Amino acid sequence: MIPPLKEIVIVGGGSAGWMTAAALSSLLAPKDVTITLIESDEIGIVGVGEATIPDILNFNQMLGIDEADFIRATNATFKLGIEFIDWGRQGDRYIHPFSGHGVDMNGFDFHQFWLHSQTAGNSHPIDDYSLCAVAARHGKFVHPDPNPRSIRSHIRYAYHFDASLYARYLRTYAEKRGVRRIEGKIKAVVQAPETGHITELKLEDGQSVAGEFFFDCSGFRSLLLGQTLGIGYVDWSHWLPCNTAQAVPSSHTGPLIPYTRATAKTSGWQWRIPTQTRTGNGHIYCRDFMSDDEAASVLLSGLDGEALASPRVIRFTTGHRQAFWDKNCIAIGLSAGFLEPLESTSIYLIQEGVSRFISLFPNASLPNVFRDEYNRHMRTEFEQVRDFIILHYAATERADSPFWNYCRNMSIPDTLKHKIALFREGGRAFRHEDELFSRPSWVAVFLGQNINPRAYDPVVANLPPADVMASVESMREAMIDAVRQMPTHEAYLAKYRIPRAG
Ligand SMILES: Cc1cc2nc3c(=O)[nH]c(=O)nc-3n(C[C@H](O)[C@H](O)[C@H](O)COP(=O)(O)OP(=O)(O)OC[C@H]3O[C@@H](n4cnc5c(N)ncnc54)[C@H](O)[C@@H]3O)c2cc1C
Asked: What share of the chain has pLDDT > 70, as a percent?
């Protein structure tokens, strides 16, 4: 009998480390297994990462987390999608909503009917047919109705939250389930001479922590997988040239919006994310096209409220490690790779890494085939998200700055070229291999970025325009009606918020 893994060590106490610790402690309920997490207060955590996508609900549910408790503890607000401003052309505005558009009819995608109605004079944008997009525009929110016949059952949502508070919340969760936390800075990593496997971590204060399997959640440093095991980096900067972020919180002005806002700037873009107590802001840009000083002034001049700190600069290189799992070590979080937060996917990729490891949970023999499957899966996940993010940059008509000229003319991956061609020729969009973003997401961004199909489904094209117009219009009215009856996001959230003094 091959023995099970008995000693698991996690390096890092950011979102990645504590999400890993929480999930493993929930699964293993440590009895025969020890789970130890090491984090350094001196190094700290990156502390950004405020916007999520609906998959976070599955993660929290898997842990058995009470939603109201979580919302209070992390200062969370609800999120129905992302609004993109000035991306395709200056003055453009569209929402990538978490719910689809309209209702598919007789086996045909809704957007085919919408395309037909456009030729018959319908001037409503596709956004007007998504419940989440319409609710977002009106500042409304409600939980999905469990009755599948109700139009409100189409609501899909995620959260905006304080990433540091989320890590703290999961720390309490994991410690209650037996995870041992050690505070201290790792100064040396010991490897077995014959295999190169990691065996022990030596801390500056003289402690030493032995383990059989190690999770590298050490952030951009990639202390174990990158620095110790020497796994190289696949650099995607030629497709996603932004390499710096500046982040700053600001005070609230106006009601809390239930969506993330991503506004394109001359050399990148700026995010605006409302949590209960403040607005998170950040400017992502490429230093080849804009200096840090200029980027800071763009950021500060784009705030709605008063800045609550000085902007913090964070450098990054878009891409991922050549392998995510090598020997007895898996990297999760920033140590595994980074894709800029345009579609709020990093926390999802952490979740996916942990879940895939759990579904492949190895015994102490660590079969290579498990490692290979994990690496294949995570590489595919990263590449699929990458293509979706590149689409926002490449499908632009902006010619107002060297940065946008570069993006408009850059080469793109063949996988993305193929998707764009399918949509351009006939409005066709498919979900490939269970990829994260499904058809409605691709359709929202294709159309939002002005990729208009040359033709649409010939069967739908043969339907009488007046009939199509009538069904499409009835769906639009149903959306507006449903949203009219929803409470405002602010009012809905009030029941979750802890009253604050003053
Ligand atoms: C600008 C920006 C914006 C982002 N926005 C979003 C977003 O909106 N949505 C989203 O999903 N994600 C977002 N992310 C990503 C998100 O922030 C990260 O994926 C997430 O916070 C995980 O970080 P981490 O835990 O991997 O690393 P970190 O938070 O950096 O944690 C690293 C940990 O390793 C420890 N450590 C490192 N070296 C040592 C050592 N030698 N000894 C002991 N401990 C050590 C540190 O103390 C720390 O605890 C964003 C990232 C950036 C850079």
From this structure: 99
- 3-state SS of 134-156 is HHHHCCECCCCCCCCCCHHHHCC
Contact residues for 361 (Cβ-Cβ < 8 A; gap 6+):
27
The vertex-383 CA angle with 214 and 406, nearest 5°, equals 125
Is the pLDDT at 437 greater than 80? The verdict is: yes
Give the Å distance between the CA of 16 and the centre of ligand 1. Answer: 7
pLDDT surpassing 50 at residue 310: yes
Q: Helix, strand, coil % (nearest 5) of the chain?
A: 40, 20, 40
- Rounded Cα distance between 274 and 162, Å, is 10
Do 360 and 325 touch, CB atoms closer than 8 A? Answer: no
* Most informative mutation of 19, 37, 43 for ligand 1 (most atoms within 8 A of CB): 43
Element (H, E) at 373: helix 368-394
Please tell me the pTM assigned to this model.
0.96
Rounded (5°) CA angle 396-433-377:
100
For ligand 1, say whether the CB of 412 is within 6 Å of any of its atoms.
no
Query: In terms of Cα–Cα distance, which of 314, 420, 382, 408 is closest to 87?
Result: 408
Non-local CB neighbours of 184 within 8 Å, separated by 6+ positions: 38, 40, 203, 204, 205, 207
Question: Ligand 1 test: best mutation among 346, 352, 385, most atoms within 8 Å of CB?
Answer: 346
- Distance in angstroms (rounded) separating the CA atoms of residues 445 and 122: 20
Counting atoms of ligand 1 from 1, which one is nearest the CA of 223? 38
Query: E strand or H helix at 173, and its extent?
Result: helix 163-176
52 C-alpha to ligand 1 centroid (Å): 14
Tokens encoding 242? 């932004």
Structure tokens at 72: 């209070």
Q: In this structure, what token pair is assigned to residue 109?
A: 């995608």
Secondary structure class of 182 (helix, strand, coil): strand
* Torsions phi, psi for 20 (to 5 deg): -65, -45
Atom of ligand 1 nearest to the CA of 48: 17
